[in-house]
Amino acid sequence: MQTCLRAARRIRHLVPFVAWLLAGTPALAADCTPRDLPPYDAAGKGGWAHVPLSKLKRDTKYAPAKEDGRSILKATAEDAASAFVHLEPSDPAKRPFLEWSWRVPALVEKADNRDPKKEDSPARLIVGFDGDKTTLTDAEQRRLSLAKKASGRDAPFATLMYIWSNRDPVGTVIPSAHSERLKMIVVESGAGGVGAWRNYRRNLAEDYRLAFGAAPGPMLGVAVMTDTDNTNAKAEGHYGPVRLACPAPAGK
Q1: Residue 177 has pLDDT above 90, yes or no
Q2: pLDDT at position 142, please?
Q3: Engineering a disulfide at 103: which of 14, 67, 82, 238 sits with its beta carbon 3.0 to 4.6 angstroms away?
């Protein structure tokens, strides 16, 4: 029984920040058109929403701001973890590219994403995907069932988490210690880019295949998260606008 309760608590930590979960299969656009996600100050207006992870954890503080004429989000975590989430149904086969930027003033000194006791990051961008959960292992289905009972929400079929790592090389895929259906991909490593805005363009379909060995199902939503609840440290993360983009036209 204690083992089941510990498993429920571990997976419950992952469920709330994927509050993008939808009933049934999301409606998808027939053709590819770029999609700029709403500005961060659209929270509560069909835009972004703050999602706590647990009543036992402090919340990361998220504050929309303006910098260089654009909408950004400033996240401040002090022994804290929570997320800023936006529901966004999309088909990675038709609109495969995810573009965003972020800036961190400093790394989380003791963070190590391979160690569940030190698994923090100054910047994360998280993407949830739908899929057929009956194909998952019995153990994973039990974890998801426990998570639903604990949180009142379904968990996504799979989750990609783009992170800034202290030491793992860019391109490294790190399995989560909490769930086989969550994989972290390192897109920035070390202190070389600290203090500067860093820009990213990731192919969701390719990254999903790299992490899970299959084509992705529909995208359910996106979240950003700065967390320090495991290292009890303080960190900041500044997030620029998020965009879903199309492949370049043939010949360009």
Answers
A1: no
A2: 85
A3: 238
Contact between residue 243 and residue 35 where contact means Cβ atoms under 8 Å apart: yes
Beta-strand ranges (E) seen in the chain are 35-36, 49-52, 61-67, 70-78, 81-90, 97-103, 121-129, 158-165, 173-175, 182-189, 198-203, 219-227, 234-239, 243-245
Contacts of 27 (CB under 8 A, 6+ apart): 89
State the Cα–Cα distance between residues 12 and 150, nearest whole angstrom: 7
**Neighbouring residues of 201: CB distance < 8 A, sequence distance ≥ 6:** 97, 98, 99, 245
Residue 8 has pLDDT above 80, yes or no: no
CB atoms under 10 Å from CB of 7, counted, come to 18
- The residues pairing with 39 across neighbouring beta strands, listed in sequence order, are none
| pLDDT tens for each residue of 213-243 | 999 999 999 999 999 999 999 999 999 999 9
Q: How many CB atoms lie within 10 A of CB 151?
A: 20
Environment class of residue 152 by beta-carbon count within 10 Å: exposed (0-12), middle (13-18) or buried (19+)?
exposed
Tens-place pLDDT, residues 73-128: 999 999 999 999 999 899 998 899 999 999 999 999 999 999 999 999 999 999 99
Length of the chain as a residue count: 252
**Mind listing the domains of the chain with CATH numbers?**
2-245 (2.60.120)
- Kindly report the number of other CB atoms within 10 A of residue 105's CB atom: 11
Q: Residue type for 196, please? A: A
3-state secondary structure 88-154: EEECCCCCCEEEEEEECCCCCCCCCCCCCCCCCEEEEEEEEECCCHHHCCHHHHHHHHHHHHHHCCC
